[in-house]
Specification:
Its cofactor is FAD. This protein is of the alpha+beta class. It has 16 helices and 18 strands. A seven-stranded antiparallel beta sheet has the order 15-12-14-13-17-18-16, sandwiched between helices. A five-stranded antiparallel beta sheet has the order 5-6-10-8-9. Strands 1-2-4-3 form a four-stranded mixed beta sheet, sandwiched between helices. Strand 5 and strand 6 form a beta hairpin. It is globular, with a radius of gyration of 23 Å.
Length: about 475
């Protein structure tokens, strides 16, 4: 290992002046993500502006055996972007340009530091639509979204981030620059390495450019929030609406979530009565006939006893307010230092799965408050256990981790995923075997070795070598 001062001096020669940071505030700011389990302890922060500078940093790191951690919007929830062991953080904030928009192909080339909302607004200005959306859209960066294959609230209609990446330029762990797929729709020429880097959490290399696909802008997005008496009824509502209408979103959340959001923000309850669960549906009401169909389906659900009350948006402002009930949950519970689990199963297994998990959590943590929400239309559940004020963070996490084995054994029983959309990082690394077989993990290690033989790219994340 080269002397610390030599590393900082060497890095300073590879990027623009003033773009290597070592002050305490910068180390703390860039060295962490939204997880609170690990304390950031990076050696330095380096902010490149070009792909060539990223290549130079990676080659320097190989030469001097320096570990690198990528940093985007730092909104992750798996500690994949946490530098806790003296690594150099490569932050992509300055690589934030949108280039080469092609209206005919509906594609745009983006640097990794482009913020999700920035791409959404660019698409809107060009009468198009970027549908990958989530509560952190105002701060999450595209490189991080791709590296974790981010999902969000529109997956039921539009899929994951992976489905919108038509090409990538990446710098591998060797410092090589690869141009993957070149934006092609059809390319049957062997292995598509693009998809290896999507969801790899920076362990194979760093994304330096992405060719993203855009879509037609949906017309008259309309939101319904329905009060539901029991969880299984939510699935009946989903099945009923999906039989007639292509939904753009289907979310659920518990009354505890509504209670917290309405208490801490200027957001009213959707209707006067409180119900144990709520379903939020979004649909493209391009014609009056679609709206009439939606209302008829709502009435059917009420008649069947699956829905107790409901409201439908009459304007964009009201639709946004109803969405706030769902999208405000993560922000609202953040001060409670929640212990989060982001799991998934196929949609048909969701009711039995949630019932099993709820029983485990309720029996183990009778004194803890539980907040449920999730992208139920694609089988993704978010379990949030809130820390009691009197309990220390360390003791709280220790108690929560004590039941993880039972939770993840249940995930395995239903052939689900221990991480639906937040990645593995460090927080889910001990539980990877509940979703991936030992044979799969060995193949993953072999892929890592091929692209990053010196193990400098985000080491210690996803799995250990």
């Amino acid at each position: 290992m080269t002397d610390t001062n030599q590393i900082i001096t060497g890095l300073s020669q590879l990027v623009d002046a003033g773009r290597v940071l070592t002050d305490a505030d910068s180390l703390k700011h860039y060295g962490c993500d939204w997880t609170k389990k690990y304390d950031p302890a990076p050696l330095a922060i380096v902010l490149p502006k070009t792909a060539e500078q990223v290549q130079a940093i990676v080659r320097f790191a190989n030469e001097h055996q320096v570990a690198l951690v990528p940093s985007g919007g730092r909104t992750g929830l798996s500690a994949a972007a946490v530098a806790a062991n003296g690594e150099v953080v490569v932050a992509f904030d300055l690589m934030n340009k949108i280039n080469d928009f092609n209206a005919m192909d509906r594609t745009v080339k983006c640097q990794p530091g482009v913020v999700t909302e920035q791409l959404q607004q660019f698409a809107e200005q060009n009468n198009l639509y970027y549908p990958v959306d989530f509560a952190s859209a105002g701060s999450s960066q595209l490189g991080g979204n791709i590296s974790t294959n981010a999902g969000g609230i529109k997956v039921i209609r539009y899929g994951m981030t992976r489905d919108w990446v038509k090409g990538l330029k990446v710098v591998t762990g060797n410092g090589d620059l690869l141009d993957l797929n070149a934006g092609l729709d059809k390319n049957a020429t062997g292995y598509d390495f693009r998809h290896l880097f999507i969801g790899a959490e920076g362990t194979l290399g760093f994304i330096v450019e992405a060719t993203m696909k855009l879509a037609r802008t949906p017309k008259n997005l309309t939101v319904l929030v329905l009060g539901v008496p029991e969880f299984r009824a939510i699935m009946k509502v989903l099945e009923t609406f999906q039989s007639k209408i292509d939904l753009t979103a289907f979310e659920f959340f518990s009354d505890k979530a509504v209670e917290l959001v309405t208490a801490h923000h200027d957001v009213p309850r959707p209707f006067e009565s409180a119900t144990p669960y709520y379903a939020l549906l979004e649909l493209e009401a391009a014609t009056e006939e679609v709206l009439d169909e939606a209302m008829a389906l709502f009435e059917t659900c009420v008649e069947q006893g699956w829905v107790m009350d409901g409201v439908i948006s009459q304007s964009e402002a009201q639709a946004a307010a109803l969405w706030r009930l769902r999208e405000g949950i993560s922000e609202t519970i953040a001060p409670f230092t929640p212990y989060k689990n982001d799991v998934s199963v196929v949609v048909s297994k969701v009711p039995d799965f949630l019932e099993d998990i709820d029983q485990i959590v309720s029996s183990q943590y009778p004194d803890f408050e539980i907040v449920w929400f999730g992208h139920i239309g694609d089988g993704n559940l978010h379990l949030n256990i809130l820390k009691p004020e009197a309990l220390s963070k360390e003791e709280f996490f220790k108690r929560c981790e004590g039941v993880n084995t039972q939770v993840f054994e249940t995930v395995q029983k239903y052939h689900g995923s221990v991480s639906a959309e937040h990645g593995v990082g460090m927080t889910k690394k001990p539980y990877l075997q509940y979703t991936r077989s030992a044979l799969e993990i060995n193949y993953m290690r072999a892929v890592k070795q091929a692209f990053d033989p010196n193990n400098i790219m985000n080491p210690g994340k996803v799995f250990d070598l």
